[in-house]
Amino acid sequence: MPKLEGIKRVLVIGSGPIVIGQAAEFDYAGTQACRSLKEEGMEVILVNSNPATIMTDKEIADKVYIEPLTVEVLQKIIEVEKPDSLLPNMGGQAGLNLGMELAESGFLDSHGVKLLGTTAETIRNAEGRQEFKDMMERIGEPCAASELVENIEDGVAFAEKIGYPVVLRPAYTLGGSGGGIAHNQEELKEILSNGLRLSRVGQVLVERCIAGWKEIEYEVMRDSNGTCITVCNMENLDPVGVHTGDSIVVAPSQTLSDKEYQMLRTSALRIIDELGITGGCNVQFALHPTSFEYIVIEVNPRVSRSSALASKATGYPIAKVSAKIALGYTLDEIPNAVTGKTYASFEPALDYVVVKIPRLPFDKFIKAKRTLTTQMKATGEVMSICTNFEGALMKALRSLEQHVDCLINDDYEGLSKDEVIEQLHVVDDRRIFVIAEAIRREVPYDTIHEITMIDDWFIDKIALLVEMEEKLKGAKALDKELLKEAKRLEFPDSVIAGFTGKTEKEIHDMRREMGIVAAFKMVDTCAAEFASETPYYYSCFDGVNEVEDTSEKKKIMVLGSGPIRIGQGIEFDYCSVHSVWALSQEGYETIIVNNNPETVSTDFDIADKLYFEPLTPEDVENIVRLEKPDGAVVQFGGQTAIKLTEALLKMGVKILGTSAENVDAAEDRELFDEILEQCCIPRPSGKTVFTTEEALEAANELGYPVLVRPSYVLGGQGMQIAVTDSDIREFMAVINRYHQEHPILVDKYLMGKEVEVDAVCDGEDILIPGIMEHVERAGIHSGDSISVYPAQSISDKIQRVIVDYTRKLARSLHVIGLINIQFIVYNEEVFVIEVNPRSSRTVPYISKVTGIPIVDLASKVILGAKIKDLGYETGLAKKSEYLAIKMPVFSFEKLRGAEISLGPEMKSTGECLGISKSFDEALYKAFLGSGVDLPKHKKMILTVKDSDKLEAVDIAKRFKKLGYDIFATRNTARVLNEHGVLTFPVNRINEESPTLMDLLLEHQIDLVIDTPTYGDKLKDGFLIRRTAIETGVNCLTSLDTADALLKSLENSDHENLSVVDIATISKERAGSC
Amino acid sequence: MGNLMMKAFLILEDGTVFEGKSIGKVKEIISEIVFNTSMTGYLEVLTDPSYAGQAVTMTYPLIGNYGVCYQDMESKKGWPDGFIVRELSRMPSNFRSEDTLQHFLEKNDIPGISGIDTRALTKLLREKGTMNGMITTNEAFNKEEVLSKLKEYKVTDVVKKVSCKDKGVYVPGDIQSEKVAADRKIAVIDVGTKKNIIRCLLNRGCNVAVYPCDFNAQEVIDSKPDGIMITNGPGDPAECTEIIEQIRILADSGIPVFAICLGHQLMALAHGAKTYKMKYGHRGANHPVKDLVTGKVYISSQNHGYVVDADSIEEEVARPWFINVNDKTVEGLEYIGKPVKTVQFHPEANAGPKDSELLFDEFMKMTGGNR
């Protein structure tokens, strides 16, 4: 069937800020969908509040609205843009829900907007719990028995009916708090009573427990003609009980016979056929490990994290094909872009194994509970491809960049055999290492399986890796056979060296001599049945190399940024992709290396060649050896890419842009101090140390408070403000958990205003698109601060100083490309606190709001162009007429036990933007976009540390004026009452009821403001903050943030928000330059 | 797995030699080397009689993961001359698994080779076409001698090898089919049938009489079946001249006929069409076939090296029913003026998707009634 008639202007909804469970995969899907729509001549109107995305580029969509994702805002945009259709299934659950609300309210109909792809009814049937159950019953597909109960008696009765164990899930609590598995009536009563109390609506879902079953997923497609196909099936190594986003996943399934595979496939196709889905859909199953019984866990009628994974695992572009289906094409009309010969109506055949491992944030949240449950906690993931499972697992492990490159984990070596077996019961991100340790201790497979329910096949694969460790340890002479087999299993040279008592270089040279080198194979969707054109490669050590070097062009390798983690997010993928595009425009062949399946950069048609590989020196060298690139670009891939600089130089690869020595100079305290001195630029005084003793000495000399942090890290990892000697001891112990190759920095902490710039430098001139100012005072990580462009409160004089310092620093460091500098303005004096000669988190946002394509310019400068020749003025660019406010977004509710108070270590997972010509409106939109939606009950809790108490008076007064009832702990209440702000004192948690906790659990509070004292170990504040987060109450931990929130509430017209098409900003600027 | 450490070689007609390890029975064979892209269902592949006279390469690298469940066999034994894999699992893991694949191969007298780059082999077969090859554990093989043997080698008379020797009778409930009431009789012409063709008929309430390939058409007609099914099978269809003669009689009998794979090719030959050998065939579980009547595409299980030449079919004899979406070859024919329908692919699946199993219902409709 040809394209549907009458579709010309399509509105696409993105997924908003990156939060745990909704990450870069939707930028990948959305970008692919937009490009696919534009291919068909559609005009695309895009709405997404997340500025760090590629989909919000004017190259991707025709009209770009970086606006809060709310029904009101979307209605406004629909009124302005008058789209004829809406594509709702590209923006995750957030986008789908919005599309549904618009459809169900009748707004779409009344404005002549057609819902493309899946219909509202389909979405209702798939998403509504009861509707879905009814439909499954109708077609005879099994669901887990469940019932929503409101009291303990009903819960007990239902559990008796379906049998123990049962899973309890309180309704409307976040992060799975209050839920759990009950094995008997006693446990049930206990968990249920707590859950009922925590639930805002007093309801708990009681469900049959299927923990321990195999978790299997199918990615399926259906077109309007009813043709259904499966793109991929995936098996979770971790059985049901761990969220699939937190599980190790393998594609295709490994332990299913054709009977089981086809049984579930048939079921998946029946379900999407019954739902009438047109487009992509994900179906999750639980399969009983010793029978054919299965249960449909859930259906996602949209693109998802799993569909991104399936796309990358197979080469089949699900989002692209979904968009075409939405336009009315049938699967057999859509060509398979990978082979160029076949069509989208086939099922990919894999001739390799894919392993995905989640990237969990416990390195950032040391106190958070590591237990993995049905609530997802991972911020990102890595994928690897190999000809065998062991190799794929090993590759994925080292792609995580978590100081791990094999299955050895020191934490368990000291345990007794019984303790190791005990440890097997713990379901967390380290379970695979415990299994390896159990195998080393000769714990039988059966025992491991009974405890973990992980299939014996996977246990045996881990055992094979352990056996190889032993073989290497025991090898008298490392012969060719053994070395070859170790490499086939993807043991890195460094690990082989460690086991055999040789150096990494010896192993490296030995295998080169023996001709044991990596070969690269193509991901072609068809297991080599058809010749393919898409250069998407992975390495293995047991095959013939397939990569053909045909291009005459000069080649540049762009190193990607690996898995999304706190501190290194989607913004670096934005930068990598733009760099690839700019380099390609300049006539170079581009090669991208990355291992993140969620991203745009690993889409097969971004660079000329895609290598899906770990970003370690050895893995990169394999590619370098083959491709012999003329240069490499490392400044766009975050710290992951920067870390590879030295290794690349050793391989003889030219680093394009700022030289390695100068990158070092910015990080090396002594070199950097010298440069600052030469430039006469002040910085807070500081020292470099290695040991705790040195740190204590430095801190006392500088005087508390001081900032402690390791060098060469991103996102302020391990950075802390110390106010006492005991803080220093604690922080140093945490930092030194891992061996530090570089010194630790101890700096005087100045509580001034933080200002940030990104600049492009061509070696002589600089271009500063704009100066950004942070709302929160220094001490809170820049990534967690509200950032305002253009800076509002700094004088022209200070501005000139900042530009001058930026120019001097960029020149002294011989920066070619991007530089990011953070300043503190303290007593009208400017101090430099951090210089990063590379791309930064703020690059995408500042590019979009100023219309200056920073990465493109930087990429061209790297190739030798001058800023002036590129058509831009040098120095500080003219201010945009729009203000843009970047608001951090957190995922605290997903991480039980995580401390939410902000500090120098970054904690946010994403960001959104508020754009407007007025400051207050921009601020309001930024808060709105981040999910702060006040007020509901007009009640708030205020508890502040002593030093904040006077400042809190003004804040309290203003909230009072907005009609809030204020509750506070006794001391805060006394101060507020003394200053004439009527405040209700409430008992602390350990005092008698009613306490602050009771207040929160009455579900009547809109907002908690709680400023913790530094080094606050008081359980009270922590508990209040956690409970607030878990019951869905907004919680602020800085008075600066509270002040900003008040401003936005006080001063903007919330009914008549303006909406801004940022594509026009670029046009305006292009006109003026 | 005693012989796992023994070296084995795969020598191809074009002189390429792959070195790997011996799996299965230790013995030397010459056969036609083909590849199959199914990711699951290795046992169904091994027991599919259509692979008689061939050595099968699995493109999916990990084979044997879920062991052997004898229930899943598609015929009484394994048929291929040889089996070629990248990695044979040492740990079968599945609740139904009764045996290892290694042991199955040994028991079925099938030699094989593992540890070779099956993707490189597949690319060779794709580019040069299906070739003959030798699997041997003889490290001192004389390449010249081997190559001349390979050039001479030709598979013949495989249908006779795989077909049942005597007429057999099945009722619903047999061979793990559903025990439903039977309301019709179907005659199955076994030119190498998979069990599941028979099972699909039994599940639909058919009493099934299976005839060997040297059947007499008149005898079948005289038994007054409600329908006739001609099955899949191995080899070059044009070789089966006697069977084709008999099939022509069946087609003209007025009894509804449904034919699958080899059966489909034989029916076309019986009507004057031609078949030719494809470069490397269709073997796998992911082949899209389009129903030209409804426009709907089904993913099908396939296993054929020969195909009916679309240009050789007279317009007034048959019209195309299904075509392959990828290469547009003939995947199904509807005969004009006769109750005869045939498909090239495998609606009985095993291994592979069951999307087109509804064609059995179509066949039931042809034989009357609503089942």
What portion of the residues of chain B fall into strands of 2 or more residues? 25-35%
How far the N terminus sits from the C terminus of chain B, by CA atoms, comes to 48 Å
Poorly predicted runs of 5 or more residues of chain A: none
Class from helix and strand fractions of chain B? alpha/beta
Rounded mean pLDDT of chain B is 96
Which class of secondary structure composition applies to the elements of chain A?
A: alpha/beta
N- to C-terminal separation of chain A?
A: 47 Å
Q: Greatest contact pair?
A: A-B, 57 and 55 residues
Shape of chain A: globular
The whole-angstrom Rg of chain B is 20 Å
**Strand content bin of chain A:** 15-25%
Pattern of helices and strands of chain B:
EEEHEEEEHEHEHHEEEHEHEHEHEEEEEH
* C-alpha geometry of chain B: globular
Low-confidence parts of chain B lasting 5 or more residues at pLDDT below 50?
none
- Radius of gyration of chain A (CA) equals 28 Å
Fold topology:
The complex is a heterodimer of chains A (1073) and B (371).
Chain A lengths: L8 E5 L11 H15 L3 E5 L15 E3 L5 H11 L3 E3 L4 H13 L2 H4 L3 E2 L4 H8 L1 H11 L6 E4 L2 H11 L3 E5 L9 E3 L2 H14 L5 E5 L5 E9 L5 E9 L12 E3 L6 H18 L3 E9 L6 E7 L4 H10 L3 H9 L26 E7 L20 E7 L2 H11 L10 H4 L3 H7 L7 H10 L4 H8 L3 H19 L5 H9 L4 H8 L3 H11 L4 E4 L13 E5 L14 E5 L10 H16 L3 E6 L14 E4 L4 H11 L3 E3 L4 H5 L2 H6 L9 H8 L1 H11 L6 E4 L2 H11 L3 E5 L9 E3 L2 H11 L8 E5 L4 E10 L3 E12 L9 E3 L6 H17 L3 E11 L2 E8 L6 H8 L3 H9 L12 E2 L6 E7 L20 E7 L2 H11 L9 E5 L5 H13 L3 E5 H9 L5 E3 L9 H6 L5 E4 L8 H12 L3 E3 L2 H13 L10 H11 L1
Parallel strand pairs in A: 1-2, 1-4, 2-3, 4-5, 18-21, 19-20, 19-22, 20-21, 28-32, 35-36, 35-38, 36-37, 38-39
Antiparallel strand pairs in A: 6-9, 7-8, 7-9, 10-11, 10-13, 11-12, 12-15, 13-14, 15-16, 17-18, 23-26, 24-25, 24-26, 27-28, 27-30, 28-29, 29-33, 30-31, 33-34
Chain B lengths: L6 E6 L4 E8 L4 E8 L5 H5 L7 E5 L3 E2 L18 E3 L2 E2 L12 H7 L3 E4 L3 H11 L2 E6 L6 H10 L5 H5 L5 E3 L1 E4 L8 E6 L5 H9 L2 E6 L5 H6 L4 E4 L10 H11 L5 E4 L1 H9 L4 E17 L5 E12 L9 E7 L5 E6 L4 E4 L14 H9 L5
Helix pairs in contact in B: 8-9
